[in-house]
Structure formats: structure tokens, C-alpha cells
User: Fold this.
Amino acid sequence: MTYEDITKSAREFRPALRFDAAISHAARAAVRRILYAVAILSILLSLEIFTEHTAGFLSVFFLSLSALGVLIGLEIFYSSIYYMRLPDGMSFELARVVSDTNQSDITGGFLGSRFGRDLAKRLGLAESEIGNFLSSRSGRVAASDFVFAEGASLSLASYARAVFESDKELKDRFFGDGLLEDDFTGAALWLERNLVRWKEAREWWSRRNLSKVQGLGKALSYGQVWLLKKYASEFAAAHDLSGIDAGGGYHAKEADETELVLSRSSEANALLVAEDTSGALDVVERLAKRLANGSIHPALEHKQLFELDTNALIAATGNKNAFELTLMKLMQESIKAGNIVLVIPDLVSFMSSAATLGSDVASVIDPYISSSAIQIIALADVGGFHQSIETNNALMQRFERVSVKGGTNEETIRFLEDRIEALERRNGVFFTYQALT
Assistant:
């Protein structure tokens, strides 16, 4: 594919690019807010207490309303192009890079773009380093020298890789500093995935996002869970799911398997067994994200995921009778609600703690977990599973075991990528791509 082909594809986004160049997104938003305020204020001032100026205020109201309508119409037109993705993979962001690039200096155009600057930052390259390289180069990569892999999708990541491969001077300069080509491409893929997720979240009118809106009648048809909320928390509220890729990546296979188990008509309970329960917890987080996205199996669409605080339950009850009575009430309430998926974060520890009170958790919950009105996801590490659960025939009959395997190196990196931005926001830190790998 030649650079002319890439430029031709980018032209499809020209109207939105020109609109952005004429007035930025931030400026348009500010003008709309001003017009909203003027419209509200003018209609309020046109009330009877200002009767002598009513006509003037109403004129201002209708003028601001008309202007607002024009701006909203233009924004709808802009969004129809901005969120478009062409069959060849071209996106608005790549079209902006291409349109702002001088064809006599492809590398300079890329590294000077917002995506290029963000990529350099993720690779641990200071702006001064990039500036020094651009100013001290002996040559430039022109459009005629640009090599883009035939058949490759026109994505930001593939374009970044092509820039790296086309510019020998760029490769030599940063290879000498220990930067690998895989680092360059991997960081670009990471940034592009985050950008795609961000755009998908903002595109509220898309089928994916509209499917998340639950019907009021459906929600009201389920019961309340007052006692459960005392000893459990809504999973999505307790865990940061913002960066999780629900569809693929790390532990996606185990999430698919768990989803299939939970969607069965009876004894739909999953036991996630991992080397460490944190790996099993990642599977539950992916399911929670699918629930939030509306991309879950239809049988689970309106389910609520609650994580049981087993330590709080044990501490609050304190003796065998109180513990078993409370646990049974929790199960009964969940079954009555009809849409509860209960997560037990460490089943082995829960059973062990209950045993100190003289209670057998498996016997207490057994009459309830065969019901189709409740699903349970229990987590256990491999050692605890073999020692305390595998030998319990009753539990093994009620739960379907899902083995959570350790991921490949690539999957582990994706796992970290999904979570790193939330960690950065919470702690005010910044990670380079090399720090993840």
C-alpha cells in the first residue's frame, strides 16, 4: 500500500477534520453551555415580573435556541464522521495524523502528532530527546519512501510500525538506547486499544451502549436484598472495571466457560480454581464488565453480582446458631430476589472460619444452591481445593469446576495494560511500556 492510498482513505474524514480545525471540540462545548445558560435565563426573565421586557427576552430565548439547534446539528454531523471506522481500518485519529503530515517528512509528522507524543511518553522518551533527534537527522522519510505492509489494516499501531520500519535513522537512534521494535509496536497497540475503548464508551447511541439500559419493569420485577447488602457489596462498585477488556485477552476463555455454567437452568454454580485466588478474581471481573456492557448471555442479562464479605459475616454473628441462621436468611433473600449471583471470594477460608464456630458451610448452603433462582461463583486456590473441597462429594456435585490457568507472557502484559491506567489515576504514578514487559 502506498502513502497515496493512505491519504486517499483519510480524505473520508476531511469534513470533520476541517470542522475541528475551524473550532475545537472544547470551544464548541463552551459555546453550547453559554447558549444553554442564555436560553434558560431569558425564558425566566420573560415571566410576568418583567412584563415590560417580555418580548425582548423571548426574542433572545428563540435566537439562542435556534443557534443551539444549529450547533447541535453540526455536532451530530461531526460525530457521524468522528466515530466512523472504514473497512480498511482507517479512523479519525489516523486521518488526522496523515492530514497534518508534510509528505516530505513522514516521521516528523507522526512524532509531532498527539498520538506520536503519547507513544514517545509511554516509551520513556523525553520530548527533548525527540526534538534533538528531529533536528539532528541527516535525512527525511518522504511519502515515496514510506513502506506500509500490503494487506495490513490501517490502524494507528500498524502506521506507527511502518514509520519505525521505514526510517532507518529512527531505528538506529533508539535501538542504540535499548528500544526494541516490539516495544514500539506494543506501546502503540496499547494506546490504540485504550483510545478505542474510550470512544466506544462515549458513543452512547451505539447498539452496544443502548443494550446496557435495563427496562424499568424488568428491574422492578426482582425483589430487594436488604440483608445481603449488609454483608455483601455490589461487585462492580467494589472493583475498578474501567480498563478491563471484557471480550478478549487474559482469562477470556475461563470467563466464557464460567458464563456458560452460570447460564444453565439448574445447579448453575461455578468453582474457579487457580494457583492464586487473584487469578480467579480476574475472571469474575471480566464477567462483571460483560454484565455492565450488556454483552453477557441472555440468561444472565439482568443479574446482580454481589461479593460476600465472609469475614464480616463471621465476625458479626460470632456463634454457630447465629451464623447459620444469618447465612440461611441471606440465601433465602437472594433466591426470593431471583437475580443474584453471589461471589464467595475464598471458599476454603470461609469454610475454615465457619468450622471454628462448629458450622459446616457446605451443609448449610446445599439446600439452596440447587435452585435456578441463584448462582454462586466460589473462588479457591489449588492447594485449598485439593485439601478441603475435592474430597467433599456434596460440594463437587453442586459446583462446576473451572480451572483458571496462568496466562502467557503476552496475556499477562494485556492484563497489566487493562489495569495500569486506573492505577496511575489513583496513585499519581506513570508507567512506561518497558516497565510492564
